[in-house]
Amino acid sequence: MAQCAASLFDPQQIEEIRRDLLKFASLQLRDHALAEDVVQEALAAALTSARDFAGRSALKTWVFAILKNKIVDQIRLQARTTNISALSTDEESMDQTFDSLFKANAHWHPDHRPAGWGDPEESLRQQRFWEVFDVCLNHLPENTARVFMMREFLEFETPEVCTQLGITTSNCNVILHRARNGLRRCLEKSWFASGERPC
Length: 199
Prior knowledge:
Layout: H1 5-8, H2 11-29, H3 32-48, H4 59-78, H5 89-99, H6 120-124, H7 127-138, H8 142-152, H9 158-165, H10 169-192
Protein name: RNA polymerase subunit sigma
GO molecular function: DNA binding; sigma factor activity
Organism: Azonexus hydrophilus
């Protein structure tokens, strides 16, 4: 059932959503003032089209979809190149960590073999999973998280990610590999391990 605009935009809920929107926009745009502007535009657009929100998804999901489109437009408009080829100390240490997971023949060390994840489709349906995923994403180095979110959330093709950030395809693929492995390890520890669910 559709919600009316008055109940949809509860000020406290919107402020909580706005903080998450701003954090994500700042990561992608690397300009706090610009991120503020884009978030304001997204919230204004959501308010303007509140009648179109049918409640089929969470309010946060709906507003994030609006923000996503505005960030993509802004990134393409800027056409700026931010070279992140030089890896941060955190990103370099990720290489050493990942190297220790494998034997010389590129197979997993028995102690580090990925654990079974049970029924992932069931986990994906649980809101708590996404909360844990968000925490894991925030523990990635900033540049790694940015590349991952451009590719997987904003749905830029790899060549466009490379163009926007001034990196090579090879470097982009390495960063994406690090991000996926970092997220996998975090989720195994915080979510899937022994079937435990964080409180």
